[in-house]
Automatic annotation (TrEMBL):
<dbReference type="InterPro" id="IPR002035">
    <property type="entry name" value="VWF_A"/>
</dbReference>
<keyword id="KW-0472">Membrane</keyword>
<feature type="region of interest" description="Disordered">
    <location>
        <begin position="491"/>
        <end position="518"/>
    </location>
</feature>
<dbReference type="InterPro" id="IPR036465">
    <property type="entry name" value="vWFA_dom_sf"/>
</dbReference>
<keyword id="KW-0812">Transmembrane</keyword>
<feature type="signal peptide">
    <location>
        <begin position="1"/>
        <end position="26"/>
    </location>
</feature>
<protein>
    <submittedName>
        <fullName>VWA domain-containing protein</fullName>
    </submittedName>
</protein>
<dbReference type="Pfam" id="PF00092">
    <property type="entry name" value="VWA"/>
</dbReference>
<keyword id="KW-0732">Signal</keyword>
<feature type="domain" description="VWFA">
    <location>
        <begin position="67"/>
        <end position="172"/>
    </location>
</feature>
<keyword id="KW-1133">Transmembrane helix</keyword>
<feature type="transmembrane region" description="Helical">
    <location>
        <begin position="527"/>
        <end position="547"/>
    </location>
</feature>
Length: 553
């Protein structure tokens, strides 16, 4: 999977008012880490040594389908359920305006998981609503709920992992685990020796219902106990009375109970492990559901807060995360390609300085040249937001550019500024042209063609780098991300056609070259026709302006 935007966000529900609190995203380094869906492709060089390059946000080849799985505790309040449904209704309205699809699965858990498989949000909303509102009771098995939610996402291999979302809502109070409810026969002393499983096991072991001071340390210690005792003291939760009556329940020693993990311990530990596994692959949100039990067993809500990294978010923010890829303020900096080819020749691509083509959801947004920005060679604007500001701006810098925030410097490049949110379901695509300057005339094949950069070839690069500077919904700034690097090639043939010894290998053919050759790029063509076309183009004087980058030593 891509290094993905791993969001573990918490929502604290206040039962008395039904209100929800929110805080900002967590930070890593100088910004948040995502792997924003993106792609870059380049056409093979044509007879004029021009390649058309397309940047796409999200990736052009990505299917516009998303999965959302709600994993809900049976104790989730009606107010919180309604907020989840309101989010889905708003998302439904947004998606219906596109060609995209959102599938929603629901897991309601008590002592086991009750699964409603994926339903189309646009056409099966009523079924989804009924699943969310179903009334069940008896026990709480957070581990089973997460296992079921993870399985749903794992099994849908038709949807990209970056488009999968799991929303886990619970008060965190749990005392059984596994898909089939399982408990640990942990002995403790009350009025007499007992070994039943329940939320009171926590206070019996730790002396109160307060949360630990350090959840990370607690998880490490508990994990060691869980692994040490294995399954020796486990039993099917529903069989407790029968096993107890038969005298066949194998319980931990009561005089060393602190050395063993009880049912609450193992349930929380497994819940944490499963949630982290989900978060490694999918967009995950841990949300604390307020409940009367949570007011008594304080370790439960505290665990959910820890699971989320202490970060809260509203359902509205989750909806925006699902619908939007990027927020306004995001930028792309694309530096033109140059380097040394496989024959040791320097190569250099120049930006074709004419209005690029920009589309949103396949609809072209009119672009016009505008007054050049400060330091720019030329500038183009696309669309109007309605407040006098363009929806997108492109500034071309022939002599290089220094990024304001990070201070990074680039050679000849352009900067595309996004002034509106980018939808997951309406890709933004920018297509522009670059031209290879001074191609070799020596026979041989120069470079290798890789249309989308997926093969990791070493040239000829149409662009040295294209950098996304992402901004998330809510304004969180992400780390810079690189687009793939497509490569192109061309072939110069010996006059008179292929001669013995021509292998088609770039290194061999380049070394076996001779003067007086023909050139082949993406198209086969006659050299005389090429020369004639070149002379005609020169006579046309300026139909297309090619701006050369300042070369540096």
């Amino acid at each position: 999977m891509k290094l993905r935007k791993i969001l573990t966000l918490a929502l604290s529900a206040v039962m008395a008012t039904g209100l929800l609190t929110s805080v900002s995203f967590g930070q890593t380094g100088t910004g948040q880490q995502w792997d924003v869906s993106k792609s870059k492709t380049a056409t093979q060089l044509d007879k004029d040594f021009i390649s058309d390059v397309t940047l796409s946000l999200p990736a052009a080849e990505e299917q516009l389908v998303s999965d959302v799985v709600l994993v809900l505790d049976k104790s989730t309040s009606a107010a919180l359920e309604e907020q989840a449904l309101a989010m889905l209704r708003e998302l439904k309205g947004q998606v219906e305006e596109t060609n995209a699809k959102v599938k929603v699965g629901v897991v309601i858990f008590n002592k086991e998981a009750h699964v409603t498989d994926f339903k189309d949000l646009a056409t099966e909303y009523d079924t989804i609503e009924a699943a969310v509102k179903q009334d069940i009771s008896s026990g709480t098995n957070t581990h089973a709920g997460l296992l079921a939610g993870k399985e749903m996402l794992d099994n849908d291999t038709d949807v990209d992992d970056s488009r999968k979302y799991l929303i886990f809502v619970s008060d965190g109070i749990t005392y059984m685990y596994d898909s089939e409810p399982t408990a640990t026969a942990w002995s403790f002393m009350a009025d007499a020796v007992n070994d039943w499983a329940g939320p009171d096991n926590w206070a019996s072991k730790y002396g109160s219902n307060e949360a630990p001071d350090n959840w990370a340390a607690w998880l490490e210690e508990t994990g060691a106990q869980v692994e040490a005792q294995g399954t020796e003291y486990e039993y099917p939760y529903d069989d407790y009375e029968e096993l107890k009556a038969a005298g066949s329940l194998n319980a931990t020693p009561v005089d060393s109970s602190a050395d063993y993990a009880n049912s609450v311990d193992k349930a929380l530990w497994l819940t944490y492990q499963t949630y982290q596994q989900c978060a490694e692959s999918y967009n995950c949100y841990a949300m604390t559901a307020g409940s009367s039990s949570g007011e008594q067993y304080l370790w439960g809500p505290s665990f959910m807060e820890y699971l989320s990294g202490g970060e809260d978010v509203s359902f509205d923010s989750i909806k925006n995360d699902i619908y939007y890829l990027l927020d306004a303020g995001s930028k792309v900096i694309d530096e033109m390609g140059y380097g040394t080819d496989n024959a040791g020749n320097s190569y250099d691509f120049d930006f074709v300085d004419e209005t690029p083509v920009l589309t949103v959801g396949g609809i072209q947004i009119e672009g016009v040249e505008s007054t050049a920005a400060d330091g720019a060679t030329s500038s183009y604007i696309f669309g109007d937001k309605g407040d006098g500001e363009p929806r997108f701006m492109l500034d071309y810098y022939r002599d290089g550019y220094t990024e304001e925030t990070g201070g990074e410097t680039y050679g000849e490049c352009f900067v595309l500024t996004v002034n509106e949110p980018v939808s997951q379901f309406s890709p933004v695509q920018l297509t522009y042209s670059v031209k290879l300057m001074d191609p070799s005339t020596e026979p041989g094949t120069y470079g290798q063609y890789d249309a989308d950069g997926s093969e990791g070839l070493s040239g000829l690069y149409t662009n040295n780098q294209a950098v996304l500077l992402p901004v998330a919904t809510g304004g969180a700034v992400g780390e810079a991300e690189l687009f793939p690097m497509p490569t192109v090639s061309y072939t110069v043939e010996k006059t008179g056609g292929t001669q013995p010894g021509d292998t088609g290998d770039a290194d061999t053919d380049a070394d076996n070259g001779s003067k007086g050759s023909g050139t082949k790029t993406g198209d086969d063509f006659n050299m005389l026709a090429f020369v004639g076309a070149a002379l005609a183009a020169a006579a046309a004087a300026g139909a297309t302006v090619l701006i050369r980058r300042r070369k540096t030593d």
